[in-house]
Amino acid sequence: MSSLLPDGFAALEPFVERWAGDTAAMRAHLRDSASFAEAAAFYAAARPLVESALTRLDAKPIAHHDGGERRLMHLMLTFAHVSLAIEVQDKDEPAHGKLREHMRITRAPADFPPTVADGTTDDHRA
Predict the structure, then answer these.
(1) Residue 102, CA atoms < 13 Å, CB-side half-sphere
(2) Three-state SS sequence of 102-113
(3) Does the predicted model carry a pTM greater than 0.85?
(4) Res. 81 pLDDT band, cuts 50 70 90
(5) Contact, 118 vs 37, CB < 8 A?
(6) Which of 23, 79, 81, 120 has the lowest tally of Cβ within 10 angstroms?
(7) Domain layout of the chain by residue ranges
(8) Nearest by Cα to 84 from 70, 63, 105
(9) Beta bridge mates, 115
């Protein structure tokens, strides 16, 4: 069986399908559509791995990440959304979600293809 994520991140594999949103709008939607229990489970699994994930992702240019590293990056970007829900909003998250309906994320810098040193783009997303 092939791994969805780089070595050392197997604990996050059950969350890839649900939480590895590939755009900022998708990550915001994932946060908004999740129950607090779903978000808390993802948060609990990802939090201990954030530092090692960021170290791994920072080790080479984003344009050179393979599919597993891109999925790991998408999980970490979603973690940023979810951590706000868990750490700051807590049980008030559903009320804040209603307000977010009026402030839609359409795109963010992370949505654009990464560039390599020669200025070309590398847009083969996994």
Answers:
(1) 4
(2) CCCCCCCHHHCC
(3) no
(4) confident
(5) no
(6) 120
(7) 10-111
(8) 105
(9) 121
